[in-house]
Amino acid sequence: METKTFLTQLQDRVQQIKDTAHYAFSPLDVAVLNFKLQPTSWSVLECLEHLNRYSRFYLPALEKAIAQTPVSSATQPVKYSWLGKKSLDLVNPESPKKHKTLARMNPQNSQLTTAVLDEFLQHQDTLLHLLGKAESVDLNKKAVPVEFFQLLKLRLGEALEFVVLHEQRHLQQALRVKERASQPISLVV
């Protein structure tokens, strides 16, 4: 897929993520946002905090990579490395397979407030801005370190797509938690 189409699709997805998070979670009370299906599962805010932790790493890395990457044609096709394909498969929102996260990225049992949602929405604005800036650079340049092992680098396009797919995956998780939190509790007598 050529660069401009690729980035437009990612921008549309990020805008949808931002809109969904805002309209689905902003009206909710903090108690609902902290509801957990079970002690080891994540609440809505924990899902968003997990994404915030990744954004705190990847957004500055993406910004730096975009600033340092040579200008390129918007008609150039986006290519994938084996590492990029593997990373995208891991976070694909269509995959039912669960994966453990790194301890430092796991917000389980955190005391969270609606500031988490505010930060998440700000990250979406930053990501939209970066996607706009990426239109003029070579998305096939290996420029973005992998968070858990920074000697490995993703191509710029792969890293952008990774962030978006990861957000979609955990937004779906947060929406499922919200749905369960909104269901009436039935007592068995």
From TrEMBL:
Name of the protein described by the UniProt record: DinB-like domain-containing protein
Protein origin, superkingdom: Bacteria
Spans traversing the lipid bilayer: none
InterPro entries: DinB-like, DinB/YfiT-like
Organism of this sequence: Rufibacter radiotolerans
Domain DinB-like: 19-174
